[in-house]
Amino acid sequence: MAFQPGGEERRVPAPPPRPGPSYSGPPPIPAVPAPPRAVRAARRLWLASFVAGLAVLAGSFLTRDSHLRRLHGVVEDMAPGSSAGAVGAAADTVFWGSIAGLLLFILLEAAVLALVMGRRRRARWALVPLLAGHALVLLVASSFLLPEGDAGGHVVLLWAGALVLACVGLVLLFLPSAGAWLTPPKP
């Protein structure tokens, strides 16, 4: 009740009743289901592939002096009579270009794998041409980055292992359970 200036009482209507709780709305933060076993295995295989590739690149970097000496000889044989500066620049370009190309593919694959793990369904298709390009760059770079002697066998084994791990990881990303997890739920 409220009093008015003339001393009269006036009734104030009660507020309307509040609506009951609604359970039809979505939660404020949707729950993300845990990745299935195939996706977790694919992630581990890709990470092992990255580690193997980076191990080869680190080994090549640490033994760069022997690689550069060998490449100087190769460039001198291909272009006899070239100046020492030109031979050195060509050998440096080939060596560092090979390292940069392989590192670029590893980084791109890691970025796309992060998108896949963020449940971007179409990102796994980007891994197919990236892996094919990685294999081609690896084939070209192997002629420049393989050390002489017995160590070359270990490098080839690591590179082959990295490619096989990545290929198996890619196949696992296309299994039905992975596809179901990568498909976002309809709102």
Give a structural overview.
This protein is mainly α. The protein has helices at residues 37-62, 64-78, 84-117, 123-145, 151-173, 176-182, and strands spanning 2-3, 9-10. It has a two-stranded antiparallel ribbon with strand order 1-2. Helix 3 packs antiparallel against helix 4 (123-145). The chain is elongated, with a radius of gyration of 31 Å. It starts with a strand and ends in a 5-residue tail after the last helix.
How far apart are the first and last residues' alpha carbons, in Å?
A: 48 Å
Please describe the biggest sheet, giving its number of strands, its sense, and whether it closes into a barrel. Answer: 2 strands, antiparallel
* Assembly context of the chains: single chain
Rg over C-alpha atoms, rounded to the nearest angstrom:
31 Å
Low-confidence stretches: none
Keywords:
mainly alpha
Q: What is the element layout, followed by pairings?
A:
Elements: E1 2-3, E2 9-10, H1 37-62, H2 64-78, H3 84-117, H4 123-145, H5 151-173, H6 176-182
Antiparallel strand pairs: 1-2
Helix pairs in contact: 1-3, 1-5, 2-3, 3-4, 4-5
Quick recap:
With 187 residues, the protein is mostly helical.
